[in-house]
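Model it.
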Amino acid sequence: MARLLIYDAYENKVYTYANLNENDPMPYSTGTTLRVREFRGKSASPTLWTTIAAMEAWNLTRRKYGKGIPVGYAFRRIWEGGHGTRSQHYAGVALDVGQSLTQTKRTAIYNAARNTGAWGYVEPLSQTPTWVHMDRRYGTPACSGTTAGYPTLRRGSRGCYVMILQDALSTLGYQTGSRIDGVFGARTEEACAVISGAPACVWTGSAAATAGKRSAPPCWAWVVPRPPSTDFLRKEARKHQTPPGFSFFGIKFSRSQCAPRCPPARCAGCGW
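Modeled.
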């Protein structure tokens, strides 16, 4: 059984589907072209998430291709790993398909996906020689010079990237509520303030997946008129047990500028 969260960007709402069977069709997908077990893939998570837009892009691709499309990888939690640090698989909006098909058929799927115009990104076949990657990323990446990053999140934000944030925080031991809900509310903001040491903060999402190895917290930025001074940041680094080599506003801290070790309550098993 699975609990599924679906973000509706049109209404800015998160819908919850409880107790879905593995053979049930994914909500908002056409017929039985994509079942829960196919979307889950190798993930062991009891909770899954995606967006209506991603399901619509799937429907268009499936219709244009005209045949069944075998799904190799789709959803993944950040603590399960297996993808890049800012992978859209962690947002539940990416599909890697066609691993068992011939190159000719994969090329046809690639062309179908590109021609729909519904995906945010369809990876060139030269980079995926034995599968087709397509994802329905959304929002403006917080990090400049890339189209692959996660967007900046603030209190009031909703959606799959908030789910990644909540997942990262809870994995590192900072609770955002009784369960992941995709809503950046008071509990999520409190967890942000604790881990960043800032009274008001946003998540830039540039290093979320390191939570999977418990090696570092997510990347943060303060909401202030201008970046804080280096002295202030070094003081905060010592106060909040920042791991050596971690960076605030591009300022990296040596071991002597950081606390000698972080408390067990914060980093059990993380290796800081």
